[in-house]
């Protein structure tokens, strides 16, 4: 997907807001819950709160104001739900089809031919939730904060290989500059990562920084913090950090503002409408239509949220609850629960990605895990049809980690290689990897005489079906002499084990099935999520030099190709370079997949209007936010 064409190789291109010549009348209508605030003088009239050029959103029908959208969070750390429902308000955004970058807080932009300079113009009159103007100064302040050495941020803004600098031209116009071409910037900014640059209001957040307040350190100490940086983080954590949603005083540009914050003991996180929201419907009525959001914080996991949905206590949700196990329950419970099921197309390519640690501290395991024959042997030992039938009730098909069939990068050979269940062929490849001897328990012996025993880290609380898949794989691999042990741990420890190199293997879902260029974590050592080559990824990104490890030649070739992708302003050239990366992936076969992630579903309350009956599901395309929940309403 992401077939945005924002540049022309021959020169600069300008992209302007797609608005009709005669837009809707300003101040056509507002929620009745704001009427008393206007009458009392607490907030100005609607026409003074809206920008001169509000963003106009079309929807299937003009809505009515009121109601509360109920949904559920899986524990207090589920900031992803907020990012995917409330916080997706960057300078630009993706359209609902995930095809084109379109205006959002910026009404227009242009880029030079080299993709090193991008000039943006903001909408005149946009206001933060406290009524203060949103200007170029906020953008410049945000860049400054992200690049402050006292705070370790991590985004495209402070990318150590090509950081952004900003030139303020006037209150509404500014320019991003890069030392090297940044041809993927617009796709990056239209993704969920685009919310970073619009997350900090200078007027509020500068009070916690010593460059703007000489008493910042003393203020921090008085507030109980050991440094101004920790105080600033607590009050203004940027992007989608969980702590950001614990401060109701933090001004935002969201459609809803915090009412009941996310705290350690919170049972709910609630939001109320932002009187200064800057989008309207086609008749000029201020959005959103829905007055409030209620996010139930479940400490009981998916089961508690599932029960709430079955009882009709969730109005729209896909996240967490839409498991294959739950689908029959939700299908049968539609009439009683007052909801119906929508269709969801996942971006993930695979139900489970088996990632062996190529940089293992044990040199014997390191050599074995990097042996392609070993990985091919494991792959042929997996009876994927059995897993699809038992775990996914026949939904899906044997599949490697590869672009999905809907992707322009789809390659059937890459998707299907080594998926045949063939124990004899598996043994042939395992023996080609040097595993010719076995102990009395039928486990193959490595070159040091130790049995092939692989401990696999897994988070069952995140996806319960991972345990089911691995338990079946455990039996299947044992039949060819490879032993795997399941290590079910929590998410914090799961991540902590990566920099310490304390793991044999980890599993995750197959991100990058549709957003192939933006999320190539399994195709080459791209990021911290490239667990199979975590230390190689550090070398590529210039991070954690104390543990970074020079990659194999083939991985370095892929990295150079990706650097060219980042430097190119031509989408066709970028696509060709990505196909070259995928060709190397196909040859090297770094990770092992199980089955194609089947289509999913959403729960939609029967009286909820304008909600999508079909949508994609991804992180970089953070649905349902691109489907404009501000236009949804209860009939």
How can the largest sheet be summarized?
5 strands, antiparallel
Order of strands, main sheet, comes to 1-6-7-9-8
- Low-confidence segments, given as residue ranges, are 1-22
> What is the total tally of β strands?
24
The CATH homologous superfamily of the largest domain is named Periplasmic binding protein-like II
- The helical percent reads 25-40%
Radius of gyration: 25 Å
The backbone outline, from C-alpha atoms, is globular
Structural class: alpha+beta
CATH class of the largest domain: Alpha Beta
Strand content: 15-25%
Q: What gap, in angstroms, lies between the N and C termini?
A: 34 Å
CATH-defined topology of the largest domain: D-Maltodextrin-Binding Protein, domain 2
Contiguous helical run count:
21
**Which second-level CATH architecture of the largest domain applies?**
3-Layer(aba) Sandwich
Domain count? 2
How would you portray this structure in words?
There is one protein chain. With 635 residues, this protein is α+β, with helices and mostly antiparallel strands. The chain has 2 domains: 330 residues, D-Maltodextrin-Binding Protein, domain 2; 241 residues, Dipeptide-binding Protein, domain 3 (Roll), CATH 3.10.105. It is built from 21 helices and 24 strands. The strands form 7 sheets. The chain has a 5-stranded antiparallel sheet with strand order 1-6-7-9-8, covered by helices on one side. Strands 18-17-19-16-20 form a 5-stranded mixed sheet. α7 packs across α8, α13 packs antiparallel against α16 and α20 packs antiparallel against α21. The longest helix is centred in the last third of the chain and has 18 residues. 49% of the residues are buried.
